[in-house]
Write a structure and sequence with these properties.
binds calcium ion, 31% helix, binds D-MYO-inositol-1-phosphate, 270 residues
Length: 270
């Protein structure tokens, strides 16, 4: 493993940058902004997404010119590179753009640093709640200054979990039928609409599990680091290790619950 202490100043800078970026997304500073469709009416991007990503790119270029940036909006104009061989910042400037556009809340900024393919630190910031979830590998996970406790198990009957509602109807990724009895057994089901925030909520115990479709590196890169520090179990839906640089289904849960949910689903899903 690399000498991680060399990355500590970057972690401290990143904490300041997410808070500064987040202040641009508060209702009092946001003002009017353009909204565009990407692949469909359900796939939105705003000028704010691009502005925030550009803000991070300029900070990183100024301070760490040899680093690469993998951002959702692809604003960074850089030569092609192998993320497993470089120091890479993985950034979702607004995770939960639909929430940002419709509700002006329940979205986050997700920033992670991976060095030669290995996780170093991750931050998920909710600028409306002013909550910063963060972790540096091996140093524990935090909500602001409060250290998060390792997660305890919980039964399905007492579990409150977040599932993308599209998993409960016919879809291209999983067999939806086994999810229906699971939903009936649980104490509650929620869906927030910001993957990074939902991963952070599992880490701090607000949710007991979170399941979603094929998420991208910027949705999960920071959350995976935070979750590992509190001993959450995170895999694909077919119980394989997640490769952060590829899209995959994502299933994170408290330790025993992860096994129980897979058993209930019959572990047949892709
Ligand atoms: C989306 C959100 C959403 C998840 C989608 C993501 P975006 O990210 O995290 O909760 O279900 O798969 O694409 O587009 O708002 O950054
Ligand atoms: Ca996202
Ligand atoms: Ca986004």
């Amino acid at each position: 493993m690399n000498n991680l202490s060399a990355f500590y100043p970057m972690y401290e800078s990143a904490k300041k940058w997410v808070v500064e970026a987040g202040s641009r997304l508060e209702p009092t500073s946001v003002g009017f902004f353009e909204v565009e469709h990407k692949t469909s009416a359900a796939d939105l991007v705003t000028e704010k997404d691009r502005e925030i990503e550009t803000f991070f790119i300029s900070q990183i270029r100024n301070h760490y010119p040899s680093h690469f940036v993998l951002g959702e909006e692809g604003v960074s104009n850089q030569q092609s590179y192998d993320p497993r061989k470089e120091t890479v910042w993985i950034i979702d400037p607004i995770d939960g753009t639909t929430n940002f556009v419709h509700m002006r809340r329940s979205f986050s900024i997700s920033v992670a640093l991976y060095d030669k393919g290995k996780p170093v630190f991750g931050l998920v910031y909710d600028p409306i709640a002013k909550e910063l979830f963060h972790a540096f590998v091996g140093q524990g996970a935090y909500l602001d200054t409060e250290k998060l406790k390792p997660l305890d198990g919980v039964s399905i009957e007492e579990g409150v979990i977040s599932i993308n509602p599209l998993w409960l109807v016919p879809n291209d990724y999983v067999d939806f039928l086994p999810f229906q009895p699971l939903v009936q057994q649980l104490r509650g089901v929620r869906y927030i609409g910001s993957a990074a925030l939902e991963l952070a909520y599992v880490a701090c115990g607000r949710l007991d599990a979170y399941l979603d479709f094929r998420l991208s590196p910027w949705d999960i890169a920071a959350g995976l680091i935070i979750l590992k520090e509190v001993h959450a179990i995170t895999t694909t839906m077919d119980n394989r290790e997640i490769d952060v640089f590829n899209k995959s289904t994502t299933f994170t849960a408290k330790p025993v619950l992860h096994e129980q949910i897979l058993a209930t689903l019959g572990n047949k899903n892709e």
